[in-house]
Design a protein that fits this description.
This protein is an alpha/beta fold and 154 residues long. The protein has four helices and four strands, in the order E-H-E-H-E-H-E-H. The chain has a four-stranded parallel beta sheet with strand order 3-2-1-4, sandwiched between helices. Helix 1 runs parallel beside helix 2.
Length: 154
Amino acid sequence: MEKIILYVDDAAYARQFLANQAPAAAGPGARHWVLVACPPRMTHRISKWVSHSARENWRSKWFVKVQDQLVPLLQVEGGTVNPVLAKGPLPELTQRLTLEHGTARVVDARRPKIGVDLEPVAKGTTPAGQSTWALPGAMLGMGALLVLANELSE
């Protein structure tokens, strides 16, 4: 049985990601999925308005919604699903899960966000859909300004 650790932060994006990966990942036999749900981060300023227990309650409700949307999809062809709510650094969680479940393939199906660097799920890897370099905003603005100045001078 193939074991796959799947990192998810948006159920709709993960469904689309899995649908696109299905032809490449198709193979005989059932799979054991470790579904790692990474809830969206809340700003540190929210602690003024929301108690810790309310935040944890929201995280658990979000986790249930993600499970409701993804577990039936992952249980196709007799697959088993072990849901996990991510807490703490993801590389350490990945290391703990690989020790617990043995050799497993790690799939990062988190939705890429513009202007936000996602934390890698394992040491030495970059998240899916995220490039290894970034163009600073000042450089991009300067380039646009030069193009605009060139257009106006003609």
